[in-house]
């Protein structure tokens, strides 16, 4: 099977995109296809695979598969690239439209110039903050309670965690120095920690000011990436919850791959604004199983 693809990235968080309006993938093959296509040595090389599809609930649907083949419920950088792609391919004709992710439908807005979209804004909705909705193990704690700056001892290290779901789960840790943050050492351990029911994306944040954060991430299913859109949203929500940032004020999040602009509104909705870039088009040779 020869599969046409497009490689795109949001601040270096790059995926291989397949157009489900044109290509019908065998459902059972997708996890293995994601692993193969993501492999830089035996495939193309990416943080995962994103499959754009028709939707019954929105204008288009996004399915995201991590490098390890696991399916994610949401992807902020992926949503901006899908918005770009759907508009440029003509699947949507308005500059404001809706995208269905596994975690729900979001409102996207593109800002085309001469038919090309480089900047996208997405209303990522209201974060889920209850312990049981992250989801985290509840034990004898209140399932309705929030996880804000909670002691989180791990690997002989005393950390405090703030847990936020943007439809996918995030554990946010505030550190004094982003440069010294233990992303590579503790990321893979925390990702699989049993206190997180479905695993977790792991973010380390250094607060520069109320409107500026430094950010690094270990992603569930993909490891260290240059950027994580839902993670940047979770970081700003966590910063507000911990009193470092304010609702209604746009926060600049400095990720390895560049800056995202995130605003948690008075209505608790998280608005993400940032770039989406195309790298290449190609044909992937995929042996069916
Ligand atoms: N690893 C994530 C999915 C990708 C999220 C990230 N790339 C983004 O831009 O939000 C998960 O399994 O929940």
Describe the overall structure.
By secondary structure, this protein is α+β, with helices and mostly antiparallel strands. The chain has two domains: 2-120 and 275-285, Diaminopimelate Epimerase, Chain A, domain 1 (Roll); 131-268, Diaminopimelate Epimerase, Chain A, domain 1, CATH 3.10.310.10. 15% of the residues lie in helices and 42% in strands. The protein contains four helices and 18 strands. The chain has helices spanning 30-38, 76-88, 183-191, 229-241, and strands at residues 2-10, 13-19, 48-53, 60-66, 71-72, 96-101, 104-113, 116-123, 150-154, 157-165, 169-174, 201-209, 212-219, 223-224, 251-255, 258-264, 270-275, 277-285. The protein has an 18-stranded mixed sheet that branches. β3 and β4 (60-66) form a beta hairpin. The longest helix is centred in the N-terminal third of the chain and has 13 residues, at 76-88. The chain is globular and about 50 Å long. It binds 2,6-diaminopimelic acid. Residues 13, 64, 66, 72, 75-78, 168, 201, 219-222, 228-231 line the site of 2,6-diaminopimelic acid.
Number of strands: 18
The fraction of residues in strands falls at: 35-45%
Bound molecules: 2,6-diaminopimelic acid
In N-to-C order, the SSE pattern is: EEHEEEHEEEEEEHEEEHEEEE
How many discrete structural domains?
2
Give the number of helices.
Answer: 4
Query: In angstroms, what is the radius of gyration?
Result: 18 Å
CATH architectural designation of the largest domain: Roll
CATH topology-level name of the largest domain: Diaminopimelate Epimerase, Chain A, domain 1
Mean pLDDT: 97
Specify the helix fraction band: 10-25%
Under CATH at level 1, the class of the largest domain stands as Alpha Beta
Q: What structural class results from the helix and strand content?
A: alpha+beta
